[in-house]
Every structure is written in C-alpha cells, then in structure tokens.
Amino acid sequence: MGKYNLDMEARADMARAFFKKGYNCCQSVALAYSDVIGMDETAIAAMGSGFGGGFGRLREVCGCVSGMTLVAGAALPSTDPSDMQRRSANYELVQKLANRYKEENGSIICRELLGLEKTVKTEESMPSARTDEYYKKRPCPELCACATRILAETLNSL
C-alpha cells in the first residue's frame, strides 16, 4: 500500500464546505489537504488567497488546479534546485493532476469553466458576494470537490 489512504468523498465534502464558508477555490482544495500540506489552516488560506478567480480574478488557471498544485508540492516536494529527478517527478504529478482535471471538466481555465466570454473584463478585483444566487450560477463547489477527488485518487496511487 502507498503512502496515502485518503477518503475521496470526505475530502470532496470538506472542499465544498470550505468554499461555502467563503474561501476561494484554491484555498478550499488546499484546506481539504491541510494534513498532507502540514500547515495550519490560517497559513494555507494565506498562501492560497491570491489564486482565487483564476489568479486574482484574472480568470486564467482555475483556482482548483492551483490548489492541487500546492498539495502536489507538499506531497512530492522539490526543494533542492539541483535535484532534477525530484523536480521532474513533481512536474509529472502536477501535469497528471491538471490533465485529469481537464479531462473531467473540459478545461483548466477559469473563464472557460464559468462560461465567460473572452471579452469579459477579467481584471476586476472585487470578489462576488456569496449569495444563494451566486451558488446557483457557479460550478465552483463541485469543481472543488472534483479536484479533491482527483488528488485523493492520485496520491493514493503514489
């Protein structure tokens, strides 16, 4: 058996709950893996705060993918810049996670996942209020759940 034995559905529920509390997608995914990351929730929330909305609401790479990347860095770290084998292993893991997310959702780009036009102004920094209407039109809680499932399955197979 591998290093991890992670419950996919429990992690998915955690990520959804974090998102419903108001955390962004990156924070929600990463917070569901605080034990793997080995940091407290405040530090993880701070570290992931700028990745929401596809990098600070630029609507680029989905925050869920950024959250998976943060977890991958903790699960298979590359801390010595001269260790190309370790760096390669980390990059391979990140690519595997991102490709799987894209297979399941059609994209890793926030604006595409949200169905926003490319001409939509993406540099607005004010986050959307978390209302019932917001949750009805956003796939984000389920995208967070999807990302955590992919992480659990992938890390369990390491």
Question: Any overview of this molecule?
Answer:
With 158 residues, this protein is mainly α. 62% of the residues lie in helices and 0% in strands. It starts with 7 loop residues before the first helix and ends with a helix. The mean pLDDT is 93.
Helicity, as a percent range: 55-70%
Described by its quaternary structure, the protein is single chain
**Coarse morphology:** globular
Mean pLDDT equals 93
Beta strand %: under 5%
Largest sheet: none
What is the number of beta strands?
Answer: 0
Distance between the termini: 9 Å
Given as residue ranges, the uncertain stretches (5+ residues, pLDDT < 50) are none
Radius of gyration: 15 Å
Provide the structure class.
mainly alpha
Number of helices: 10
* Count of domains: 1
The helix/strand series, from N terminus to C terminus, equals: HHHHHHHHHH
Task: Describe this structure in a few short sentences.
With 158 residues, this protein is an all-alpha fold.
Topology at a glance:
Elements: H1 8-20, H2 25-31, H3 34-37, H4 41-48, H5 52-55, H6 63-75, H7 84-105, H8 110-113, H9 132-137, H10 140-156
Helix pairs in contact: 1-2, 1-10, 2-4, 2-6, 2-10, 6-7, 6-10, 7-10
Descriptive key words:
158 residues; mainly alpha; globular
